[in-house]
């Protein structure tokens, strides 16, 4: 099976712009979770989508949003970018939402905000 | 809220030797899951091993094993016969058990950088 894929791998944006990141889970996985990784804050949970519904949400401002499509692919959107949004954004999928069996991560999207 | 603490920021080990990475966590829950993830320089997070809190038996996966002490809220990872490819950042993570099919949020520690010396 192909692993989790994320596009694009690298992005450079300027403050105030918006950005959309994409994640395709492992075939058959219906849950997609998003994490932000920064040197200062470490890995933080953004939100999780399961069957096109946001099921769990972390403590991030409303500028961070997401959605999931019927084929389980997920997108994450960040509006009005700030310098502090520069980070590695990781998505992870799990089989039938059973994260306890392990979440499988993509290679990440490196976002740089100038 | 749950917290995960990895107090050692860096460790180094000679190839073929054994190393133990420490992790403690804080939770008021009795049913949860614990994980160790590895992040090599490529930045791809890889699941190393998982432990169910209700199981007393420590999990093992080839050269990787854990020492799970539920009362002490401790979850250490032992890597035997260390290999150069084990060089990576290792994260301890906690997941609340919300029921089958409902578990998703991982709470991570800050990570520990492990270097394996040839």
Short description:
The complex is a heterodimer of chains A (114) and B (118). Chain A contains no helices and eleven strands.
Quaternary arrangement of the chains shown? heterodimer
Along the chain, the helix and strand elements of chain A come as EEEEEEEEEEE
Tell me the helix content of chain B: under 10%
| Structural class by SSE content of chain A | mainly beta
Which regions of chain B are unreliable across 5 or more consecutive residues at pLDDT < 50? none
Largest interface here, residues on each chain? A-B, 29 and 26 residues
- The global form of chain A is globular
Number of strands of chain B: 12
Radius of gyration of chain A: 13 Å
What does it look like?
The complex is a heterodimer of chains A (114) and B (118). With 114 residues, chain A is mainly β. Chain A contains no helices and eleven strands. Chain A has strands at 5-7, 10-13, 19-24, 29-38, 42-50, 53-57, 64-68, 74-78, 87-95, 104-105, 109-113. In chain A, the strands form two sheets. In chain A, strands 2, 4, 5, 6, 9, 10 and 11 form a seven-stranded mixed beta sheet that branches. A four-stranded antiparallel beta sheet of chain A has the order 1-3-8-7, with no helix packed on it. In chain A, strand 4 and strand 5 form a beta hairpin. Chain A is globular, with a radius of gyration of 13 Å. The N and C termini of chain A lie far apart (37 Å). The mean pLDDT of chain A is 94. Chain B is built from no helices and twelve strands. In chain B, strands 2, 5, 6, 10, 11 and 12 form a six-stranded mixed beta sheet that branches. Chain B is globular, with a radius of gyration of 14 Å. Chain B has 118 residues and is mainly beta.
């Amino acid at each position: 099976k192909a692993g989790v894929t994320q596009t694009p791998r690298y992005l450079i944006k300027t403050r105030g712009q918006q950005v959309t990141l994409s994640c395709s889970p492992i075939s058959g996985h219906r849950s997609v979770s998003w994490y932000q990784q920064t040197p200062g804050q470490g890995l933080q949970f953004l939100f999780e989508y399961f069957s096109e519904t946001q099921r769990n949400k972390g403590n991030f401002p409303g500028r961070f949003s997401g959605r999931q499509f019927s084929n389980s692919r997920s997108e994450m959107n960040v509006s009005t970018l700030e310098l502090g949004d520069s980070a590695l954004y990781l998505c992870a999928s799990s089989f039938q939402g059973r994260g306890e069996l392990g979440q499988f991560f993509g290679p990440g999207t490196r976002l740089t905000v100038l | 809220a749950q917290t995960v603490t990895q107090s050692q920021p860096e460790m180094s080990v000679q190839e073929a030797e054994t190393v133990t990475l420490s992790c403690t966590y804080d939770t008021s829950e009795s049913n949860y899951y614990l994980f160790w993830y590895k992040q090599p320089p490529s930045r791809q997070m890889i699941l190393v091993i998982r432990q169910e809190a209700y199981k007393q038996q420590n999990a093992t996966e080839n050269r990787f094993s854990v020492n799970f002490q539920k009362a002490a809220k401790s979850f250490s990872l032992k890597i035997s016969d260390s290999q150069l490819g084990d060089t990576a950042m290792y994260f301890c993570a906690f997941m609340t058990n919300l029921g089958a099919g409902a578990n998703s949020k991982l709470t991570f520690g800050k990570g520990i950088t492990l270097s394996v010396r040839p």
